[in-house]
Automatic annotation (TrEMBL):
NCBIfam families: wecG_tagA_cpsF (TIGR00696). GO terms for molecular function: N-acetylglucosaminyldiphosphoundecaprenol N-acetyl-beta-D-mannosaminyltransferase activity. It comes from the Bacteria. Pathway: Cell wall biogenesis; teichoic acid biosynthesis. The lineage of its organism: Bacteria, Bacillati, Bacillota, Bacilli, Bacillales. CDD domains: Glyco_transf_WecG_TagA (cd06533). This is N-acetylglucosaminyldiphosphoundecaprenol N-acetyl-beta-D-mannosaminyltransferase. The keyword Ribosomal protein does not apply. GO terms for biological process: cell wall organization; teichoic acid biosynthetic process. It comes from Brevibacillus centrosporus.
Length: 245
């Protein structure tokens, strides 16, 4: 039987494929179990490697391989991760389940215009899913208690948080026991894509595993963040050659 966890530079990834991951999450929600999902790409792995507090958060979460770099790293180190589980596609798949099961959904983060548009589009696309609330990510610290209380009162099956990593993961863990959310997941820039403000790479770029390059070409300001990719590759290969990975 394939093991359920593979370690990439110390980060414990689920080895389930996309559909199997969705089914597993649905099973946990229906069973009343709380789940914190982290969609981890090379940038997240390097953050976890360099910051002990963030690594502790990731180690307690259900981590999926969001990024072809993770799949390649697994291949290089002979670990059973064969399929990407991207954040925006996982969000859409969980929304489809929410539509089917009439689950409640809460959206938090992003720019005010973006979150409003994303909420509207998701409500139109999944009419039986109940979008019970949304809030942009431009809030002050003294407003957090009110936001947490609002989410707690709504008791969402799905809580999607777009505050950027590592802030979104730290925020969810900080308030996890108060939020009353069945599944909470950091979704980074997914609301920008869903709202239509940012275009996802065309299918051919995705198929060629060059989505990261498309994002860099269309948003050159991302170049500093993208430096995590070559650092990640070099670190994986160095550990492989030294026999530690």
């Amino acid at each position: 039987m394939t093991k359920q966890v593979a370690s990439i530079l110390g980060v414990p990834f689920s080895t389930r494929g996309f559909r199997e991951s969705v089914d597993y999450m649905v099973e946990r929600i229906e069973g009343g179990k709380q789940t914190h999902v982290v969609t981890a790409n090379p940038e997240i792995v390097m953050l976890a490697r360099e910051h002990r507090g963030f690594r502790a958060i990731v180690e307690q979460a259900y981590v999926v391989p969001d990024g072809i770099g993770i799949v390649y790293a697994a291949k290089w180190t002979n670990q059973p991760i064969y399929e990407r589980v991207t954040g925006v596609e996982l969000l859409e798949a969980l929304m489809a389940e929410a539509d089917r099961r009439r689950w409640s959904v809460y959206l938090l983060g992003a720019h005010p215009e973006v979150i409003s548009l994303a909420a509207q589009k998701l409500a139109e696309r999944y009419p039986s899913a109940r979008v019970v609330g949304y809030r942009d990510g431009y809030f002050r610290q003294d407003e957090e208690e009110q936001i947490v209380q609002d989410i707690a009162e709504k008791k969402p099956h799905l809580l999607f948080v777009a505050l950027g990593a590592p802030r979104q993961e730290e925020w969810m863990v900080k308030y996890r026991d108060q939020l009353n959310a069945s599944l909470m997941m950091g979704v980074g820039g997914s609301f920008d894509v869903i709202s239509g403000k940012v275009k996802r790479a065309p299918a051919i770029w995705q198929k060629l595993h060059l989505e990261w390059f498309y994002r860099l070409a269309s948003q050159p300001s991302r170049w500093k963040r993208q430096l995590a990719i070559p650092r990640f590759v070099l670190t994986v290969l160095r550990e492989k050659w030294s026999g530690r990975s």
